[in-house]
Structure formats: C-alpha cells, structure tokens
Write a structure and sequence with these properties.
338 residues; 41% helix; 18% strand; globular; binds uridine-diphosphate-N-acetylglucosamine
C-alpha cells in the first residue's frame, strides 16, 4: 500500500514508518518537525534499507497537503501529528484546538478530494478519564478532563460522524495506553524536548545522570504499592498494532475503535525497579504530592484487538527498559547527537 503518515518523524510515528517500510509499504511522511527531527527518518531508512518520502509541512497547510496527496496518491493515512502535552494544553488551549482539530479537518478534506478512504487515528486512553473503573473496554464511557484529552475525544467523534456520512470512509481509532521503549537497535527512540513529562523518559535521564532524582507523584493511591498503575506498551508492539489496523480496514468498512495496551498494569515503582534491572544503575527517587489530573489506575481490556486484529503486545516492560537504556546510552542527547 501507499501510506501517508502525518507526524511520522516523531516517537510512535518513526517506529511505525519503520514497520511499514519493512512490510513493503511505500510511505510519505508529512511532518513540520516542530517536535521531532528529520534525523529519525534518516535512521529509519538506514534500518529498513529503503526510504520514506518526506514533506516538511504542517498538516493544516492545505496547499502543501494537496500537493502531497496529488504526488503520492495514498491508499491510506495514519494520523499521528498533534500536540500532546497535558499541562501545556491547559495554558494554550486554543493552540491545541486549532492544531489538533484543524489538522484533522485539512486531512479529511484532502482525503476526500484525492479519493483516499482509509484513516488510522492516534487516540489515547486519556479518553477514559475517571468515568469508570479499569480495565477499560472500547465501550467504557469516554470524556476528557483537559484540552489535550478533549481534542482526542472530539476527533474521535468527528471521525465517527464523517464515517457515518460517507459509506466509503473507513476509520480505525487506536487508543494507546502508555507507550515506552525504543527500537532494539538503539537507533531510534523517544527524544522529548526539555524536561520530560512522562515517566520513562524521566527515569532514563535520571539513570544517565542528566537529572538528580525521580519525583514519584503520590504513594497514597488505592493500588498495591500506593503509586499509580498504568498499562505500559512497547512502542514496537504499538507500531505493529497500526499495521494490523490497516490490514483490517482493507477488508472492513465503517468506524472501529481498538485499545492498544497489554492489559497488565505496572506501578511507578515497578517501572523504577525494571529500569534499575535493565541499566544496572540505582534510580534515586522521592515521593512527592500527587500530580493534579492523574488517575490512580488506567489499563486496557485488550480482548477486542486480539479477537478482531489478531494483534497482541509481545514485549515485556523489562525489554522496553533495556531498549530505552540502549537508546539513551548511545544517544544521550537524542537525535541532536548526529
Ligand atoms: C500522560 C497524560 C496522558 C497522555 C499520556 C501520553 C497526564 C496527566 N496524562 O499519561 O493524558 O495521553 O501521558 O503519553 O499528563 N509519574 C511520576 N513521576 C514523573 C512522571 C510520571 O511519578 O516524573 C507517574 C504518574 O503519576 C503516573 C505514571 O508515572 O502514575 C505515568 O505517568 P506518565 O508517563 O506521565 O503517563 P500518564 O499520566 O499515564
């Protein structure tokens, strides 16, 4: 297939582009590099032995997108591009709505204009909020508690409405739990700018001495060790989930939602210990107050993806920590090293 990937230079995008190229698909990446580096795509090409095409543009740029569709004629789109920091989204909500919703509109319009009828969308388990108890199924109630989460929730609804109005349009919404890890080669991985918001990149920087210690946000949750429980999924498994969703869309019309997680929750301290095991380095930490907006536990019921897509996560949290440690040790400054 010919697959247009927005945000393909980013963390999950680059691992998915690699999997697409390895499977024999042709790929065009559209990315404005606002939170990613073209170096990730150079390394993907080196790993795959073939290149993705690349257009540097914001997905909201209708003229650039039109030219990209006209030149590439994609059969399907995977839409990763978007702003994704929860805290920042509460400070500059209009930017989040403009970028995340606007890019989706431009993309759907370009698809319609160029006879492309399949889209896989990067959603998030954040849409489950605290509306019900985990494990979450795809039918659990959804909503959101911050502007970032609301953009994901709104885009899901926009896609459902678009699919209801157009019998040709096929939509896969993938609700990611907590992506971690890196490619086993150590050549591509997560390269957050500034102080990482997410747990594993922060732990990784503590292990290499770039940060003094981890702040553990609360140990008084109703969980086995009191720290938050999450469903950490290896990014290479997550990438494979996108290929499974694309395959499914090839044979089925309509609008579909799948959780991509492991179904096996781990606590913050489990992750600290797994990383210590993988790196051989002690991770100093301090228990501090809960982070506003955090939930006690979030993990997936993964039955539907297994049944319908024949997909399941295969890699352990230990493997993810080993892969992150390799990536971090060999690229202490991320892609800026090259
Ligand atoms: C966060 C976002 C979520 C988003 C996801 C994207 C918040 C509240 N939620 O999920 O909407 O979809 O990232 O990747 O930001 N933790 C620490 N110390 C740290 C960092 C995290 O103790 O320095 C704890 C958290 O309290 C949580 C767990 O580690 O229990 C995972 O945190 P994180 O990696 O930020 O992911 P989420 O909060 O699940």
């Amino acid at each position: 297939m010919r697959v247009l990937v927005t945000g393909g230079a980013g963390y999950i995008g680059s691992h998915t582009v690699l999997a697409l190229l390895e499977t024999g698909h042709d790929v065009l990446v559209v990315d404005d590099l606002s939170n990613s580096s073209e170096e990730s795509l150079r390394r993907v090409a080196e790993l795959a032995g073939r290149e993705a095409r690349f257009v540097q543009a914001n997905v909201r740029d209708a003229a650039a997108l039109d030219a990209a569709f006209a030149g590439f004629s994609p059969d399907a789109v995977i839409h990763f591009a978007g702003w994704k920091a929860v805290g920042e989204s509460t400070q500059i909500p209009l930017t989040y709505y403009r970028e995340n919703l606007g890019s989706t509109f431009t993309l759907l319009e370009a698809m319609a204009a160029h006879d492309c009828h399949q889209i896989v969308f990067s959603s998030s388990a954040t849409v489950y909020g605290e509306l019900s108890e985990p494990p979450f199924t795809e039918d659990s109630p959804t909503g959101a508690t911050n502007p970032y989460g609301r953009t994901k929730h709104m885009i899901e609804q926009i896609l459902a409405d678009a699919a209801a109005a157009d019998a040709e349009l096929r939509v896969a919404v993938l609700r990611y739990f907590n992506p971690i890890g890196a490619h086993a080669s150590g050549r591509i991985g997560e390269d957050p700018k500034g102080i990482p918001n997410n747990l594993l990149p922060f732990v990784a920087q503590v292990a290499t001495g770039r940060r003094d210690k981890l702040m553990v946000f609360g140990d008084d949750y109703p969980t086995p060790d009191g720290t938050g429980l999450r469903d950490y999924i290896h990014v290479v498994d997550l990438a494979a989930g996108h290929l499974a969703a694309l395959d499914y869309l090839g044979g089925h019309g309509g609008f579909h939602v799948w959780n991509l997680g492991t179904g096996d929750p781990k606590s913050v301290l489990d992750i600290v210990h797994a990383y210590e095991g993988a790196s051989g380095v002690a991770i100093p930490y301090e228990i501090v107050a809960r982070r506003p907006g955090d939930v006690a536990a979030s993990y997936a019921d993964v039955t539907r993806a297994h049944k319908e897509l024949g997909w399941q996560a295969r890699k352990s949290v230990e493997q993810a920590c080993e892969d992150t440690f390799r990536w971090q040790s060999e690229n202490p400054d991320g892609f800026a090293d090259s």
